[in-house]
Fold:
Amino acid sequence: MPHQHLQPVGAGRQQSVDNHHTHLFEGPVNYGESVTLTATVKPSFGGTPTGTVTFLHGSTVLGSVTPSGGVAKLTLSNFSVGTTHVEATYGGSSEFLTSTSSQEAQIVNKASTTTTLTSSKDPSTHGSSVTFTANVHAASGATPTGSVTYKDGSTTLGSGTVNGSGKATFSTIALASGTHSITAIYVGSSDDATSTSSTLSQKVD
Structure:
């Protein structure tokens, strides 16, 4: 990612800081994954800046770091899904002026998920209850929320709500005798992407 050249902010006899770079984790990340923000404060005429670098999203402070060798790094994993614009501000010191980077955008996509499906009884008997359990797992971030839709081929059987353990269940006595192709579809949420289980072949005697 290219660096941006910034002019110093402030005035006085202090040595100015005229090259203040900030860059984010390379490329988009998924929800729940870590992002490392890096700001490099480079004096115009040598020396090592002291003080604090503050990372901001608008007026919201994401964190403050003391540079080491002119480099400040802040690792976060709580970015929301979407595009977050971040800038870094060097607060200056007795020898160095303040400076602020240009904004850069960090793209955060929904976390990928996988859904697996099991049956409480296979084969089952016509007229008896069968419970299908979907287990939804997110590759990053918290346990997924939302619901799971259960289908027999293209026919929707019903749905279940994902609980705190990532499981959703659906029970039915309506399956006719024969073999049924059951799938569980996690519909996704604001943080997690949708996913569909492999087909479960349910035999009903």
